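Submission checklist for the structure archive. All mandatory fields must be present; incomplete records are returned to the submitter.

[x] Identifier: DNA starvation/stationary phase protection protein
[x] Organism: Actinomyces naeslundii
[x] Residue count: 165
[x] Sequence attached
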Amino acid sequence: MSAETAATPSVSFAFTASAALSDSLQRVLVDLIALGVTTKQAHWNIVGENFRDLHLNFDEVVDIAREGSDEVAERMRAINAVPDGRPATVAADATVPSLPKDEITVSEGVAYVVSAIEAVVSTLRGVHDAVDGEDPTSAGILEDLTGKLEQQAWFISSEDRKPVR
């Protein structure tokens, strides 16, 4: 066995993502990364009544986004797709709305984070059926993330809601 053969072992994947599956998971990845970064920005700069509860709740969203982006990227590698989480890629491709750099009120923070979660959930739901058709394992990850994020949107949006009578 030559030194070159020993240094580059051959890897055979049982399943390899199609370009469409890879693209779908990449779309989810950049949205999750953007959600984590921008929600952390909101977490640092939210001010006003009940800021502390939202400050902590925003960290829960950040945790879901960060753990989710890692799980999606690692799933991509497991199915021989290459994730791209570079800042320029995230900035160019994410659907998450932008957030001002300054302080934001509790109401602005609620509206922003809920809209950011809704953007990510829209991506998750938009790619789900195609992903499920090719790779139910990846679709299961998307389903789990959708449930967690929709729950957070409900929690956070309840801060500003008035009861329907």
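[x] Structure attached
Curator remark: The radius of gyration is 19 Å. DSSP finds six helices and two strands in the chain.
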